[in-house]
Amino acid sequence: MNLENNQISDRGIEYFHDFLQLNQTLTTLDLSLNDIGVKGAKSLSNILFQNKTITTLNLNFNHIGVQGIQSIAMSLSKNQTLLTLQLKHNQIFDQGTFFIADALMKNHTLTVLHLEENSIGIEGAQYLANALKQNQTLIELHLGMNSIEFQGVKYFVKALLINQTLKELYFEKNNIGLKGIQAFTELLRKNQTLSTLDLSNNGITDRGIECLISMLAENQALTTLNLRSNYITVHGAMHFFQNLRDNYVLNTIDLSDNRIVTDGHEHFLSVYENIRNLNVIF
């Protein structure tokens, strides 16, 4: 059921309460852009405690806040039906992340979680990383456009050396810099589970590419790497491609919106054109 952008608000959610508690067929519910706040979140929490059919819940672009997230997290701790939860842009902050992390340590069914644009910082990153050390069901985690930075990356690296379930990590626009790339490189040397990594818009230069090159021969799991909107030049890209000979797994790399100008670089084109079945996005 798609109810996106319908000005439902907290009061409207109360009207849905009885219907959704009794409904035994609805599996997908999109309530994004509906001005849902703390009261609406509490009503949804009560619904999730009892509903046994909803597997996908989209709450993007509301203003649930810390108190509202606390209520949803309580129901998430016990709900064994929900598979996908989208909470992008909901003013969760580090404090709200604490409640989500606590729920992840108790929940055994959620596989996809979106937390983009929630002002999550280093403290929130630590909460989530600790949860990933215990959680064995989450497959896809979206953390783009937060403020996790290099210090937060370190917590995730430690967690993903333990976690063997997470396959997709989206970390775009988190200002991780060169130190963050170095930390992810060390992770990719050892982690053989992660198949998709999004590091777009993180200030990565050719020095960052050099770090990633060093793990190509050791990692046999990563299939998709997103480096869009960074500062990589044609020289960095060419060196990356030249070192793909020992890696037969990576099949998609996004290098669009970088500083790669191929005009006049015939050697680059010859290197790129001879790469085995690699989907490169410029």
Report on this structure:
It is a single chain. The chain is elongated. The protein is 40% helix and 11% strand. The model has no long low-confidence stretch (mean pLDDT 93). The chain contains 10 helices and 10 strands. It folds into 2 domains: 1-133 and 148-162, Ribonuclease Inhibitor (Leucine-rich repeat, LRR (right-handed beta-alpha superhelix), Alpha-Beta Horseshoe); 176-282, Ribonuclease Inhibitor (Leucine-rich repeat, LRR (right-handed beta-alpha superhelix), Alpha-Beta Horseshoe), CATH 3.80.10.10. The longest helix is centred in the first third of the chain and has 14 residues, at 9-22. Helix 2 (38-50) runs parallel beside helix 3 (65-76) and helix 7 runs parallel beside helix 8. It has a 10-stranded parallel β-sheet, with no helix packed on it. The chain is α/β, with parallel strands linked by helices and 282 residues long.
Head-to-tail CA distance between termini = 37 Å
* Main structural class: alpha/beta
- Mean pLDDT across the residues is 93
The helix content, as a percent range, equals: 40-55%
The number of E-state strands comes to: 10
Fold-level CATH name of the largest domain? Leucine-rich repeat, LRR (right-handed beta-alpha superhelix)
Q: What CATH architecture of the largest domain do you see?
A: Alpha-Beta Horseshoe
* Order of helical and strand elements: HEHEHEHEHEHEHEHEHEHE
Shape: elongated
Question: Biggest β-sheet: count, sense, barrel?
Answer: 10 strands, parallel
Q: State the CATH class of the largest domain.
A: Alpha Beta
Number of helices: 10
Placed side by side, the strands forming the largest sheet appear as 1-2-3-4-5-6-7-8-9-10
Number of domains: 2
Low-confidence stretches: none
Strand proportion: 5-15%
Determine the CATH superfamily of the largest domain: Ribonuclease Inhibitor
